[in-house]
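idk why but the lab printer keeps eating my pages so im just putting this in chat instead. protein + iron/sulfur cluster:
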Amino acid sequence: MSKLNLTGLSKSELETRLQKMGEKRFHGRQLFKWLYSVRQYDFELMTDLSKELRDKLAENFEINGLNPEDHRISVDGTEKFLFRLDDNKPIETVVIPSEEEDRSPSTSSGRNTACISSQAGCAVGCFFCATGTMGLLRDLTAGEIVGQLMFLRDKYGPSAFSNVVMMGMGEPLLNFKNVIDAIRIMTDETGLNISPKKIVLSTSGITPKIIKLAEEKVGVRLALSLHAATQQKRQVIMPIAKTFKLDKLMKAVRLYADSSNLPVTFEYILFAGFNDTKQDVEDLSRLVRGLRCKINVIAYNPVPGLDFKRPSDDKINWFGKELNQKVKAVTVRKSRGMDIDAACGQLAARKFEKDRVSAQI
Ligand code: SF4
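predcted complex ->
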């Protein structure tokens, strides 16, 4: 009989499991701490549990994490890991050092950002995104979501990352329950103990789920992948924009900002000749007027085979300066890890395509 993998189970699920075995519920809380805070995966070494209980746990459960199939390090210190899930689906996790440091997690002071995936592939199909070309393979479990962070801490220790962005493969709000469960494990003081303010959930704009996220009161920061400031333009590059119109989406974003009392981040990828004009600056500044927010202007990281281009450095700088005259908090980001396929889903999409072709031969 196969054993149940405990990774990703919530505190209350562990309490219930233990209770069903005829044990006290508080042993579930002890197990939660061993699993996520101490990251001790050998039941035998969980020393505050009785020998009898440790044996019982080992008979019924296992604790399995993620193992990377591929690991690449960029000249700028960005690191990308490719994991194969139990069913062989590929997902990616990226660690991005702060721009001041440009050092890998093994040598940095810990100001790294872990960019994690919430789905294998993605159904949203933004036209500029490598992950979008794969379609949705499946949702990640809560264990597979937090497993990416546990792997990084096991490998690099407590300074592996200081911030988490759910901006890797997938649309987190289309895997709502597992993402919320994972956030609760991340933010629990006896879990991964990450401040909710250090976690950014990035969405392509699933309006009803943004409202639901506000109701969950998990306290994480919200980022909207905006990329174009008018309905007409946005739906050219993001098919989801036809379903969730920009006016209602912005109302939901404002509601989230009010209820969380946190500024919202707008991600604005700059594509040459598409969204980089003076008119775009006007539209963008009008759209966010009166909202506590920051805008990240990001130069497009080109994906081979996709029909989008990165603007020149001069154009990127000009856009950032123009926008900054109208909106206070604007950050212009250079592309990171360009030498290691670090654009969202690029490496996994490549592996997925290779698997598909091999299966056909
Ligand atoms: S940008 Fe995000 S939402 Fe859009 S296809 Fe890629 S992973 Fe999905």
